[in-house]
Design brief:
single chain; 10-stranded mixed beta sheet; alpha/beta; 19 helices; 9-stranded mixed beta sheet
Length: 703
């Protein structure tokens, strides 16, 4: 077993291990080791008797690093085998969630078929689960790896198409203005080359002054009756031109295409398939990437499913956006005067009042956004007016929901909605379980009392059999010193769920706050932000942004399925990082958040029966609770504007004895049995992203 921890200054670092078995170090047989910050990684290795030397390259790019821990430990073959099988059971796509004995038999069978030993076959599968593809570095390689599977899926889809009950006509709206003929030709060809033929291309030339553009349009539109060209007499900008294209559209659905971008050849086929699968769909959208002047694809955006609060932070829907035409007509099409954010305005108005079943995400890259000078594909600063218009669009939208709501800019030219606090301010009951440990409890309680600008709360210390005189003295003193503090005794064996359920039953507030005894607020407005979100009628659990003491991220929401059950979004990232498409800086809906700092209305807590004190005494009770809240019809939410330090598991300690490990495995089994399909299909994530790591890297075929 190799144990390795390297502290580094890289956003995403990889170490590499080389082996010399008599012919020098073979670079083709190296072992890549992804390096999360501040964490020891463990990897089972096999050393042949011929091994002469090892070489470790600590990081793969220029930068600073410190090897904090490096150790090799001999393993008994039985232990190594079990470790390998456990890993395959957790994250390998072929073996996930299978019984270990079944995995073992399958490996024996495959080894015989391939003329390999069990060890060679098992290690190949084991190593493949650690393949790590960062989108910015490995996207081209990832596309190559996916090509064969993609082609097979496409053939199946084409064979099924004749049996579809519905062959919808999809009208593509293409506003054009002085587009370079070469780019325009490529754009239009990406439509005419579609594998699905039941389309209509509606082009509106917005009074182009370029003779080359006008001539190219005439040539490109000739000979195909499915193409309609509208020649506008006056330049009205993109909203007016789009409405001109919409006016001649006759399709069942309308797709939006910019004049220099490209559709993938299977785009409309995938859209039509999704419409047949989801006949109630009113809006469909896909993943997207960018394409440079040399035709190289890069920077893929693998999006979540329907995420209303993320949409208030950024327009993640475009592109490819496909709208039911009649509804688009009914809401008035595009609003003029909002150029630059007309698509964001459209999708907000279009989705207003829709249910989640009306909005379908297609997790495939169907749109290639051209990165040329002047395009926002190169960065939002390319069209600064778009951001200002976006603020206007969002302010109009949220004001309809609440007149006192306000919108402001946030990091990376995205948006933040500040929701008003109710008047009078609701009482919040903060529940803080503890056992002894005054050295962590006191800083937590003192910081909450002193640094929180939201004053209308009670802090209930749930004392779980403390015996330390200093701790008992502190609890008595702080409850006497501040009338907001109460101490309640829980004289039973440790059960996190039961302790908090007891605390909730004694709480006087209309909002429950689950708070670990090892967190400390960073910003004074943390509780005001969380309360303002928790008071929104459609919101369930609200989670905060938590940091390790060294400033790296501990929690930015929970992603289901990572490691088999769940993991934390962007764990160990630099605290100032934007994250995957800025998601570390944006309010968004997530399936779950950690109970280390979680707010929820008391009525919702009671509606779903609180935490599961029978099956989930220690681990995953927060994930289970959040999923129950989601099933009850509420949206869970993460806000980066409530920031706290979290000294994770300082008080309870690690799972370091057989009894704790057995309990932990039983809790994993319960979660898999109860929530298996949901854990494997997190709508706040994307199936093209990894379940082996917490960094939003690309998902390899085996993981």
């Amino acid at each position: 077993m190799l144990e390795l921890a390297i502290e580094h200054d890289q956003p995403s670092a990889v170490a590499e291990l080389f082996f010399d078995t008599g012919n020098g170090f073979d670079i083709k047989k190296s072992l890549r080791l992804p390096l999360p910050q501040a964490k020891i990684i463990k990897r089972v290795l096999y050393f042949p008797f011929s091994l002469r030397a090892l070489r470790l390259d600590p990081i793969s790019a220029e930068g600073c690093f410190t090897i904090a821990h490096c150790k090799l430990v001999w393993l008994k073959p039985s232990f190594a085998k079990n470790r390998i099988l456990q890993r395959l059971c957790k994250v390998h796509s072929q073996y996930k969630n299978l019984d270990l004995a079944i995995i073992n038999r399958e490996l024996i069978k495959q080894a015989r078929q391939n003329g390999l030993s069990w060890r060679e076959m098992a290690l190949q599968a084991y190593q493949s689960t650690f393949e790590h593809s960062v989108a910015g570095v490995n996207y081209s390689w990832w596309l190559e790896q996916q090509a064969e599977r993609h082609q097979e899926q496409l053939q199946v889809l084409q064979s099924q198409q004749p049996q579809w009950a519905y062959q919808p006509v999809i009208s593509i709206l293409l506003p054009v203005y002085n587009t370079p003929p070469t780019l325009l030709a490529e754009c239009i060809h990406s439509v005419t080359a579609q594998l699905y033929s039941n389309w209509q291309l509606c082009i509106a030339d917005d009074a182009s002054t370029s003779a080359e553009t006008r001539q190219a349009l005439q040539q490109l539109c000739a000979g195909d009756k499915r193409i309609k060209l509208v020649q506008r007499e006056n330049n009205g900008h993109i909203s007016a031109a789009s409405n001109s294209a919409l006016a001649v559209a006759t399709g069942d659905y309308v797709a939006l295409l910019d004049h220099d971008d490209l559709l993938s050849p299977d785009a409309l086929l995938k859209v039509a398939a999704a419409i047949n699968q989801h006949p109630n769909a009113l809006l469909l959208y896909s993943d997207e990437d960018k394409i440079d002047g040399q035709g190289k694809r890069y920077d893929p955006h693998f999006k979540p499913g329907w995420n209303p609060d993320l949409l208030l932070s950024q327009n993640y829907i475009s592109h490819l956006g496909v709208y039911q035409r009649q509804r688009m007509v009914n809401i008035g099409g595009f609003r003029e005067g909002l150029e630059g954010s007309q698509d964001h305005d459209l999708v907000l108005r279009f989705t207003d009042g829709l249910q989640s079943q009306h909005i379908v995400h297609i997790p495939e890259v169907l749109y290639h956004w051209r990165a040329v000078a002047g395009s926002t594909a190169l960065g939002s600063n390319e069209k600064s007016y778009a951001h200002k218009t976006g603020l206007q669009v969002l302010q109009q939208y949220v004001s309809k929901q609440h007149p006192q709501a306000s919108v402001s800019s946030t990091a990376g030219d995205y948006y933040r909605v500040v929701w008003p606090l109710p008047s009078p301010a609701p009482l919040v009951s903060l529940l803080v379980p503890t056992r002894d440990g005054v050295d962590i409890l006191a800083p937590c309680v003192n910081a909450i009392l002193e640094k929180t600008d939201y004053r209308h709360f009670e802090l209930i210390i749930l004392d779980n059999q403390s015996s330390c005189p200093r701790t008992l003295e502190y609890m008595q003193q702080v409850s006497e010193r501040d009338e907001r503090v109460r101490v309640l005794r829980w004289d039973h064996p440790f059960n996190y769920s039961a302790i908090n359920n007891f605390g909730a039953s004694q709480a006087k507030g209309s909002i429950i706050g689950l708070v670990n005894n090892d967190v400390e607020p960073i910003n004074a407005g943390w509780l005001s932000e969380m309360v303002s979100q928790a008071c929104r009628p459609k919101i369930g659990c609200v989670g905060a942004k938590l940091y390790y003491p060294n400033g790296s991220l501990q929690h930015a929401g929970v992603i289901l399925g990572i490691g088999g059950v769940a993991g934390h979004s962007h764990k160990y990232f630099n605290g100032n990082a934007l994250g995957y498409f800025a998601r570390l800086q944006l309010v968004q809906n997530l399936s779950a958040v950690t109970a280390a700092c979680l707010l929820v209305r008391k009525e919702v807590f009671e509606q779903v029966g609180g935490l599961n004190e029978e099956h989930l005494k220690v681990a995953f009770n927060d994930v289970d609770f959040c999923l129950k809240v989601r099933e009850a019809g509420y949206r869970n939410l993460f806000t980066p504007f409530a920031e706290l330090y979290h000294h994770e598991s300082v008080s309870r300690g690690a799972e370091d004895n057989p009894e704790k490990q057995a309990r932990f495995q039983a809790e994993i089994a319960y979660m898999r049995q109860t929530w298996g399909p949901q854990l494997d299909n997190d709508p706040a994530y994307n199936p093209n992203l990894t379940l082996a790591y917490e960094d939003f890297s690309l998902r390899c075929l085996s993981s």
